[in-house]
Amino acid sequence: MIEATSLTKRYGATLAVNNLSFSVAAGKVTGFLGPNGAGKSTTMRMILGLDNPTSGQALIGGKRYHDLKEPLRTVGALLDAKWVHPNRSARAHLSWMAKSNRIPASRVDEVLDIVGLTSVAGKRAGGFSLGMSQRLGIGAALLGDPEVLLFDEPVNGLDPEGILWIRKFMHRLADEGRTVFVSSHLLSEMALTASQLVVIGKGQLISQSSTEDFVSRAAENSVKVRSPQLAELREVLVKASASVTDDDNGIRVSGMDSDKIGEIAAANRLVLHELSPQTGSLEQAFMQITGDSVEYHTGLDAEAQHVLDPAAH
Amino acid sequence: MTLLAVERIKLFTTRSPWWCALITLGLTVGLAGMFAAAAPAGESLDVPTTQIGYQFGSAVIMVLAALSVTTEYRFGTIRTTFQAVPHRGSALVAKTAVVALLSLVIGEIAGFGSWGIAKLIRPKDNLALHTTADWINVAGVGVLFAFAAVIAVAVGILIRHSAGAIALLLIYSLAAENLIKLIPKAGEKIHKWMPFNVADKFLSGGGNTAGRIVSDSPLSPGWALAYFAGFSIVLLAIAIGVAKKRDA
């Protein structure tokens, strides 16, 4: 339903999004994952026709956003929950949006009910908590009963209850056959919400796969091996192009799964005392995969080194 | 029509238009009342004098008009607007139309209110609306406000920040045009063609008005209005052209 082809966005010298192509299918929640500053929001704004791509295009159901008639009926989006005039009531905010796409006024009350804001519909949106603003934003996205929904970091800053609510909500929307595209910088959150993942870093596509594939690829990235014949084992593993590092009292092998290591050991008649795949935390794995592509390194590591080891300078 | 309704809902569901409308009426009608009350008993007020406060009124109208756009940028609702209506030109024209229409209404109330309060306080003075010039003097205020609002919306679209847009509009309309006169030789000639000076010509007809600087524009009142209107529409067209190209 959403098809991005060679999307590129350049701001002066910075390339915010670089030749990004991916597709988002209907009936599933697709996660859009990347560290902060990876270009997720820019990409979403380009899909919605708010930012003009430097080159490439994004199509929704085969059409450019600009060519959609009454677009709120096709695409609903929550890019920023704070995009509401603080002195306008929730109902007034939804009313003008509904009017703009000839959506009946009764739908406004329906949507307020769906997101549970009926009791505060007449209150100033400026006084809303983040959770309430987020619900109002989702209500606005649902207004035209759209086939395609885009959410940019919808759970940011929410309490656990709010997060759970949004997660269930997205599953429901996808189960109804809609296209749900949701961005996040948290893999752990996406692992629970999305069944498909588009992962980007520094504006470039890192992978597009099912969440399962991505998580297993990310998490099963090393195997701990202990052996009395460690030196020989290390040699044959390196020859088989695995990368090997020292561990406490064994070695850590990456780039090869445990089955293969066992087979290699057997073929070379080497004794193994331990062969255990290490499932690191998802966050760690995600950092490893996108590590090279984080836009803003904090320089914290270097600073810590400097403090801990003043003699080196 | 739909888009006009959208912009009407947006405008009237915030507070600033109401405040600006009240302040405009307070300034124009209040000043007219004060002039009428303070004028010496022996002299007669004339119609142009009742409209003494219109420049302050138009300044507040421009604040209202500029805010109607800049708050949308400030709170991000302009993006929601362009999401709902991807044809940015139509959305912005509709907004301008609604704001200009509101300004017209406020201006008419201000014009006739100012004239009315003066007539109420000084019933014996020569304040009857006999000539076309008299009528333009009073009824023209709304028309002038409407085009001033178009200018302010255009500046709001271009500058996008409330403080910047308002500062520019107020300084320009209240001070900058007169400062241009200070440029040696060319200053006077340029000043004749400055839009707000020309607009004043439309309203006052260049007639003698007690206590007011009279416009030195060479245009007739009719052409003066056309010039002012043309200026505002060209500025709006430029602003919309820029908004279409820019990232929202």
Automatic annotation (TrEMBL), chain A:
Keywords: ATP-binding, Nucleotide-binding, Transport. Residues 2-227 form the ABC transporter domain. It comes from the Bacteria. Pfam families: ABC_tran (PF00005). The keyword Membrane does not apply. CDD domains: ABC_BcrA_bacitracin_resist. One of its GO terms (molecular function) is ATP binding. PANTHER family: ABC TRANSPORTER, ATP-BINDING PROTEIN. Belongs to the ABC transporter superfamily. This is ABC transporter ATP-binding protein. The lineage of its organism: Bacteria, Bacillati, Actinomycetota, Actinomycetes, Pseudonocardiales.
Automatic annotation (TrEMBL), chain B:
The chain crosses the membrane at residues 18-40, 52-71, 92-115, 135-159, 166-184, 224-243. It comes from the Bacteria. Keywords: Membrane, Transmembrane, Transmembrane helix. This is ABC-2 type transport system permease protein.
